Amino acid sequence: MIEVQGLTKHYGAFTAIRDVTFDVAPGQIVGFLGPNGAGKSTTMRILSCFMPASGGTARVAGYDVFSQSMEVRRRIGYLPESVPLYTDMRVAPYLDFVAEVKGVPRATRKRRVAEVMDKCLISDVQYRLISGLSKGYRQRVGLAQAIVNDPHVLILDEPTIGLDPRQITEIRALIKSLAGEHTVILSTHILPEVSMVCSGVIIINKGSVVAQGPIDSLVEAFFPLSRVQVELAAPPDSAREALRGIPGVRDVRDVLTGDGTAAFAVEAARDRDVRGEIFQLAIDQRWRLLELRREGMTLEEVFMKIVAGEEAGEPEPRVPAEPVPAHETTS
Amino acid sequence: MKIWPIMKKELRLYFTTPVAYGVMFFFLLVMGYFFFSIFSFYTMASMQSAMNPQMARDLNPTDSVMRPLFSNMSVILLLLMPLVTMRLFAEERKNGTIELLLTYPVRDGAVLLGKFFAALVLYVVMLVLTLLYPGIVMYFTRLEWGPILTGYVGLLLMGATFIAVGVCISSFFENQIMAGTATFVVLLMFWVIGWSGDAAGGIWKTVLSELSIIEHFDTFAKGIFDTKDIVYYVNFTLLALFIGLKSLETRRWKG
Questions:
Q1: What is the number of other CB atoms lying within 10 angstroms of the CB of residue B113?
Q2: Model-level pTM?
């Protein structure tokens, strides 16, 4: 649905993005991750036909964003980061205007606008001036204008920024409900959001794509280890030695060692579960087991590892640049 | 071409905010003052001419009231219209709404024309309100409707040019005050450029005085339809809109 090939954008001497390449299959929600200034917004502005790339090509919904911009624009919904709205307008007339410009037929326009307002939970403010709305409501009005024409592709630049926790949950649920019929690419720097909402992720840093793929396989590629948190009422030194002695354990790191208790992070091969052996060890040694918990490696850690690794100049772990898998491959 | 939705939106923004009413109020206020002083001068002159029939020969309300009123109006509009048009693109650029507008499936030309026609509609409403003044004159005396008609056609053409220049210049700026000031200065320069014609002499005298944006209006105020003047305003309007369109399109150039 979105095919980006070698996209490059210069602002004068500054290169915002360099040779960005990725694919998004139809019906997917893909998170576009990166630290501030990594080039997320630039990429999204190019995809939404707001500005042209300096080099490379991008196709959205099968059309080239530069040469067939009108066709692309008919099929997308875009929400820029700053959520620019006509603040002197009221919500319903504003959405009616957007629907008209986006070519929603006159006969169904009123119904469509009402539907979208229901979906985005803004029906109760439909006669209010946009300038009087809170940030959360504005964000939802922005989302409503993006989906009012039922677009094939949604491009959302930080859709949950500045919302309160309840609103964030609502917006995420809304975005999630759009998957399947819509293809969504959303940028964010809130990592848990990606794990919750997205099926795939594209990580960009300093203008280049550094990793992409389904979240699980990314985590696996970057962390071939599984991790268990253990807390024992035991002398730290002997406990550490004993844990190291368990077959398959690669590393034991101190988390917190105190008076008679010790907490460790035990890392083992990914397919190996060492919890049973730790439990047995505690029984054998007559140590009281205070905590035993298997910990999933999170996207945060992947992200930190990639971005920090880049900054330290380490060679990045190579991830096969596999495209995000499709639920269906019709398009 | 989706000109209509854009135009409707701009009109909504003009007429649901105090902008349109403020502009109309102050326009009518100053026009009312001019009308009052011109008309009361005319009444005084006609009273004197009752005693001096020689003077009455050249005195008629069309020429002595409406023509000065029209030329005053053209200058006031030159000052006022930049304030009406300055927000059209500058505001959208400042608020970032242009980013959304230009990613909607609507051509740059339609956006430009929608904004142009919206300002033109507001302008026509302002002109219609000034029909009050010939109405008042007609209540007291006979008025030829021909020169009034040509006067209003001239005002419409001239106003369209002012608006086109304003829309065009607004598309270059992010700051409304900058856009308004630049429009005002450009229009002012095209007004006074004729004055330097006298000093230049020869062919330049003709060229410079023909360029003047207000000189061309005077024939309309006299009740003359001259193709030369119509062509001047229409071409000026089209040129300004064309430059505005190109300025919008530069954003789409590969850089």
A1: 22
A2: 0.84
